[in-house]
């Protein structure tokens, strides 16, 4: 008689308890997606430089207008707590000290994708869309372009705009140069 293997999913509370108990280490690069703990890809120097540059640009553009989270958790629901490269959040004077931001707090999520491109497109994109994240950027390092997804509907985004080097992107009435974001000369 064959037995069926059953996967045990965890929730955000259990995930945090694992961290508090030392099962998960503070320097582990992990995300909880659909109740499963995923190890994130190592960050290369180009990836890190773009995250740093983008964080600097956004902090300058949105000072006292939005909180710029850098590789910090966003609690999407009870089984999902991704750590996007950048989360642009509604401004709060406590900077989310009392709790991780929820979807209603998110103005935009930005993922910098190289090794994670498929996961970001096939898993995270529908996750963000189905929870009403209004704007989702995928910065594709392999192709040097930025896909901006807006208008979430039924687990996907109704609008997708690709931005290439030399073009400009609008975010909350502010303009960013693709070349500046991608650190292209």
Automatic annotation (TrEMBL):
<dbReference type="GO" id="GO:0004519">
    <property type="term" value="F:endonuclease activity"/>
</dbReference>
<dbReference type="Pfam" id="PF05685">
    <property type="entry name" value="Uma2"/>
</dbReference>
<keyword id="KW-0378">Hydrolase</keyword>
<keyword id="KW-0255">Endonuclease</keyword>
<feature type="domain" description="Putative restriction endonuclease">
    <location>
        <begin position="12"/>
        <end position="173"/>
    </location>
</feature>
<dbReference type="InterPro" id="IPR012296">
    <property type="entry name" value="Nuclease_put_TT1808"/>
</dbReference>
<dbReference type="InterPro" id="IPR011335">
    <property type="entry name" value="Restrct_endonuc-II-like"/>
</dbReference>
<keyword id="KW-0540">Nuclease</keyword>
<dbReference type="InterPro" id="IPR008538">
    <property type="entry name" value="Uma2"/>
</dbReference>
<protein>
    <submittedName>
        <fullName>Endonuclease, Uma2 family (Restriction endonuclease fold)</fullName>
    </submittedName>
</protein>
């Amino acid at each position: 008689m064959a037995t069926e293997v059953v996967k045990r999913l965890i929730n955000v509370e259990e995930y945090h308890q694992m961290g508090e108990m030392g099962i998960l280490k503070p320097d582990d690069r992990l995300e909880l997606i659909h109740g499963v703990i995923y190890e994130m890809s190592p960050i290369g120097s180009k990836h890190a430089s773009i995250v740093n540059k983008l964080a600097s640009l956004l902090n300058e553009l949105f000072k006292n207008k939005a909180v710029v989270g850098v590789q910090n958790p966003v609690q999407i629901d009870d089984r999902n707590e991704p750590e996007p490269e950048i989360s642009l959040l509604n401004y709060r004077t406590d900077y989310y000290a009392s709790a991780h931001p929820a979807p209603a707090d998110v103005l935009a999520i930005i993922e910098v994708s190289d090794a994670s491109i498929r996961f970001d497109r096939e898993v995270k994109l529908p996750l963000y869309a189905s929870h009403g994240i209004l704007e989702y950027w995928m910065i594709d390092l392999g192709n040097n372009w930025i896909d901006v997804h807006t208008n979430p509907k039924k687990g996907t985004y109704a609008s997708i705009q690709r931005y290439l080097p030399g073009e400009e992107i609008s975010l909350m009435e502010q303009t960013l140069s693709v070349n500046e974001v991608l650190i292209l000369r």
